[in-house]
Amino acid sequence: MKFGDIKWAQHDGAPPAILMTAAPRGESGVSLLRTRFAKAAYFNGTAHQHLIFLQLSPRQRLNCRMGGRKLVHEPGYGALAICPAGIDCSVDSEADMDTLLLTVDPRRLTLAAAEADVPQGRLNERLSGYDAELLAIVKRLVAETRADYPNGPLFWSEINDEFMSRLVDTHMSSPARPSRGIIGAPTLQRIRDYVTARLAEPIEVAELAGLAGRSPFHFTRAFARSVGMTPHRYVVHLRLQAAVARIREGRTRLADIAAETGFSDQSHLSRWIRRVHGVAPSDIGL
Asked: Less packed terminus of the chain by CB within 10 Å, N or C?
């Protein structure tokens, strides 16, 4: 699992043992990696993903650094550390260490923040702490992974959405001075309402730019920074949400759902479901 310029080792200089990995199909934006370090642990690097560390070992002494901040402490089971993408961080210990590392795609977290009305929210650095609710959500992700997704193909994604929401609600902050180059929450809501009311119709970027009072060029750049995807991709995102909801209701043929939600045909909708959710349309209702 490659997620940045990372070096890690245990007492003998070898990488830690990998006990479990999970990178579900589709575009959840979250992967899990459970590791075990023998006799000592060393981790150092800068990732292009957000890194969420959860300690699974008993209380032990850790020497931690994140950016210019340092901390020597003795956290216990369930301790949490958060290293945002692009921040240099390290940890070392002179004992056995079990950890669960979650990597989060910054674009997916940006989308989750925007949809929670926190456009351009910033994930906070955290050297140490506890979050019992986040830990409980992650344990459910792990249980589903170990059991090979017994509750259906989309259940893992639903838990993942809870995980993202918890990060946004508890571990992100809004910029002290909102940038003029972002799409604010009221504008994004206007865009969302506009698209939702016209799912079956062609929607041009110029129409959405007009709602924001910007030129299409500047709107597209600002939108991607604020929401984590292009305007066109966001329209597809909203259409797919509506299509999946209709499929789960089970009252309409897939071809009709495709037409109602703006996809060119049944195959077009099926391809997007497979790309985003990693399953066939027939699996959606399971």
From this structure: C
